[in-house]
Design brief:
Elements: H1 29-32, H2 35-70, H3 74-102, H4 104-122, H5 128-154, H6 162-190, H7 193-202, H8 207-217, H9 222-230, H10 252-282, H11 288-315, H12 318-337, H13 344-360, H14 365-372, H15 378-393, H16 395-407, H17 409-412, H18 414-426
Helix pairs in contact: 2-3, 2-4, 2-5, 2-6, 2-7, 2-8, 2-10, 3-4, 3-5, 3-15, 3-16, 4-5, 4-8, 5-6, 5-15, 6-7, 6-11, 6-14, 10-15, 10-16, 10-18, 11-12, 11-13, 12-13, 12-18, 14-15
Length: 439
């Protein structure tokens, strides 16, 4: 390497003496340390994931209106989430391979265009079956965006601050969720329900603006791109399933336990994301505006949780942060689902810690999964494990849907707590990676 410090690209950084100030000191030092290209990559990934979130939540927020319009049972509405998440595993795995073979930015553009096109198409669906197909195809893009965007930024970030940098990216999910809740409140307040759900899906065209900017302004981290291009194994799907030997540890064990971890966390999360709006309207008797108010507390907690979890994953380590918030999330779900009828003020207050805990657990995912895989198969490994976990975790909200008619939505939410228990157990099979340089 040159004796002159290069621009920050891959997470290597420069060495400093004890007590010497560094570029990443201060509350926003992690952002300054990314450099101009890294900050543009951060903006592109942040916007892509926020709009991914927005397009995802057009469905859960419109679920009650959709059920009435098409005359659907709880099981049928739960199937919307199932197909989205199951197909997202295919999209996520494919996007990960593409990210390793054609580059992070190109793969990011493909995922954003895909989820935007099919979200808009959902608004034109003439029947339940067509809407189900369009929602499944939306899952192709939805599945890949986060993994690709997270890797793009991880390869610019320093090992010291990678957790909080990726936690900030993760917080954009709450931004998109909040935007969707605002648009939902406005649309359903001024448009009749039979048309409002279509309008919600049509607003999913917003990502088209982001695509234009990313195409012109964002590029892959040069060092990481060079390392990936030089590898004969780039985008090799078989590599992430290679068993360990005496000479090489292999990646099979890592892949299996990372899938279990993703399954548990996302099973718990999507149970809540899918059914809380319905729970608030049907079992707690809240109006559209009332539901939006309660979701404000939940989403505000989520945003704070993402940022706090990002900080803690650098301070406590990846595994401890996930374990801590898996336990707290399970406790919050059980408390939220068992609040007595009439105690809606308590429901409002508890929404903040519930959103906080179920989001803080995600903050370490971007850094943790990036650090578990080498550069040549980082996209492949992260895309597969995160989205396979998402697909298998889809069984949780579907189970809630089928049990809701007999148990009630609130009672069935207990399955989310089971998901977080699975995540805590999966951590025993994975190493701690805090401070690891990307190789």
């Amino acid at each position: 390497m040159s004796t002159t410090p290069p621009p920050r690209t891959l997470a290597t950084g420069t060495q400093h003496g004890a007590g010497e100030p560094t570029a990443d000191d201060g509350a926003f030092g992690w952002l300054r340390a990314l450099g101009p290209r890294g900050r543009r990559a951060f903006a592109g990934a942040f916007g892509g994931y926020a709009l991914d979130s927005y397009d995802y939540f057009t469905l859960p927020l419109s679920m009650v209106a959709l059920s009435a319009y098409f005359g659907l049972s709880s099981g049928q509405t739960g199937l919307f989430t199932t197909v989205t998440l199951v197909v997202s595993a295919i999209g996520g795995a494919a996007a990960g391979v593409l990210a390793d073979r054609i580059g992070r930015v190109k793969a990011l553009l493909i995922t954003v265009i895909t989820y935007a096109v099919f979200t808009v198409a959902c608004g034109f669906a003439p029947n339940y079956e067509t809407l189900l197909v369009f929602r499944a195809l939306q899952g192709l893009g939805f599945g890949g965006e986060w993994a690709v965007g997270a890797i793009l930024v991880a390869e610019y970030a320093s090992a010291k601050n990678r957790g909080r940098t990726l936690g900030a990216i993760q917080s954009s999910w709450a931004v998109g969720w909040g935007l969707a809740a605002i648009v939902y409140t406005l649309v359903f307040s001024f448009v009749d329900d039979d048309t409002a759900w279509r309008v919600m899906f049509w607003t999913g065209a917003l990502p088209a603006l982001l695509v234009v900017w990313v195409r012109r302004s964002v590029q892959d981290a040069p060092e990481a791109a060079a390392k990936r291009e030089a590898s004969a194994e780039k985008g090799s799907f078989s590599t992430i399933f290679r068993p360990g030997t005496a000479a090489s540890p292999g990646l099979l064990r890592t892949t299996v336990f990372a899938v279990l971890l993703s399954t548990g966390v996302q099973g718990g999360y999507y149970t809540l994301a899918t059914w809380v709006p319905t729970y608030l309207k049907t079992e707690r008797g809240l109006s559209v505006v009332g539901t939006g108010g309660y979701l404000t507390f939940l989403i505000s907690g989520a945003f704070a949780g993402y940022l706090t979890g990002g900080y803690l994953t650098d301070k406590l380590g990846r595994r401890r942060n996930i374990w801590l918030f898996a336990v707290l999330s399970a406790i919050c779900i059980l408390a939220y689902a068992n609040i007595p009828s009439g105690a809606n003020t308590l429901l409002l207050v508890l929404g903040f810690p519930l959103g906080f805990c179920m989001s803080a657990i995600f903050s370490g995912f971007g850094s943790f999964l990036s650090e578990l895989y080498p550069t040549a198969v980082r996209g492949t490994g992260q895309g597969f494990t995160y989205n396979t976990g998402r697909a298998v975790g889809a069984a949780f909200p579907t189970t809630v849907g089928f049990l809701a008619d007999s148990w009630g939505v609130g009672g069935a939410l207990v399955f989310g707590a089971i998901g977080y228990g699975l995540a805590a157990l999966a951590l025993f099979g994975l190493p701690e990676t805090r401070g690891k340089e990307l190789v």
